[in-house]
Amino acid sequence: MKQWRRGFAVTPPELTKDDERYPGHDPRYAKLSEKELPLTESLALTIDRVIPYWNETILPRMKSGERVIIAAHGNSLRALVKYLDNMSEEEILELNIPTGVPLVYEFRREFQTAETLLSG
After folding, report:
1. Per the annotation, does 5 bind a ligand?
2. Best CATH choice for the domain 2-118 from the list 3.40.50.150, 3.40.50.1240, 3.90.550.10, 3.30.160.20
3. More confident: 2 or 80
4. What positions are marked as the site Transition state stabilizer (predicted)?
5. Binding site annotation covers 86?
6. From CA 77, how far away is CA 8, in angstroms rounded?
7. Is 116 helix (H, G, I), strand (E, B) or coil?
8. Does residue 120 have a known ligand-binding role?
9. 74 CB contacts (<8 Å, ≥6 apart)?
């Protein structure tokens, strides 16, 4: 179970279309094709979604001078922390980001991580 929750490339068993948790049953995803709906996901797959969004949307806003607050699901945050802190697959397995506790990143001019602070 820990490998599913904290591991890097291990995925839980796939959902089937008749499972009530299947995302295709949720009207919020009605515009997505079946191919775009995840049936399972690992941290590696989450990184594949999160890092392009970081590079294409969040980082340009920061470079333009905006301060950015990110509130996200635990695995999305772990994906971003792994990337920003250049953590190994073994290190990310042990990382725990407490719920509701701010995690503050300060960046140098080149937008490389300068300091990470766990507040609270």
Report:
1. yes
2. 3.40.50.1240
3. 80
4. 73
5. no
6. 13
7. strand
8. no
9. 97, 99
pLDDT in tens, 60-116: 999 998 999 999 988 899 999 999 999 998 898 888 888 888 888 888 777 666 556
| Mean pLDDT (whole number) for 21-39 | 91
SS3 94: helix
74 is in an annotated binding site: yes
Amino acid identity for residue 49 in this structure? R
DSSP string computed for 25-91: GSGGGTTS-GGGS-SS--HHHHHHHHHHHIIIIIHHHHHTT--------HHHHHHHHHHHTT--HHH
Instruction: Find out whether 38 and 63 touch, Cβ atoms under 8 Å.
Output: no
Mean pLDDT (the chain) is 86
88, two tokens: 């190994």
